[in-house]
């Protein structure tokens, strides 16, 4: 049996992207929002944006919607 690694802590991901702790608003251990001040940090603009959301139905089932936008 192979072991797959779990999600990386969001602080490790942010450090790899050279984001400061003040630019990060963590939600749990593996997700966060990035503040708008990170946009003006002299970074190259991104080329691909992936957004995923889950909208539950009245029966409690999840319906996944994925949007892809190019910047």
General description of the model:
- It is a single chain.
- The protein is mainly beta and 71 residues long.
- The chain is 10% helix and 34% strand.
- It has one helix and four strands.
- The protein has one helix at 10-16; strands at 24-26, 32-34, 48-56, 62-70.
- The strands form two sheets. Strands 1-2 form a two-stranded antiparallel sheet.
- Strand 1 (24-26) and strand 2 form a beta hairpin.
- The longest helix is centred in the first third of the chain and has 7 residues, at 10-16.
- It is extended, with a radius of gyration of 16 Å.
- It starts with 9 loop residues before the first helix and ends with a strand.
- The model has no long low-confidence stretch (mean pLDDT 76).
Order of strands, main sheet, comes to 1-2
Helix vs. strand class? mainly beta
Q: Segments where pLDDT lies below 50 for 5+ residues?
A: none
How much helical structure, as a percent, in the residues? under 10%
Largest β sheet strand count, sense and barrel closure: 2 strands, antiparallel
Q: Averaging pLDDT over every residue, what do you get?
A: 76
């Amino acid at each position: 049996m192979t072991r797959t690694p779990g999600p990386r802590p969001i602080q490790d991901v942010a450090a790899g992207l050279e984001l400061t702790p003040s630019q990060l608003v963590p939600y749990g251990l593996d997700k966060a929002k990035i503040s708008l001040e990170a946009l003006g940090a002299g970074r190259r603009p991104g080329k691909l944006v992936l957004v995923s959301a889950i909208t539950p139905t009245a029966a409690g089932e999840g319906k996944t919607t994925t949007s892809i936008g190019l910047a």
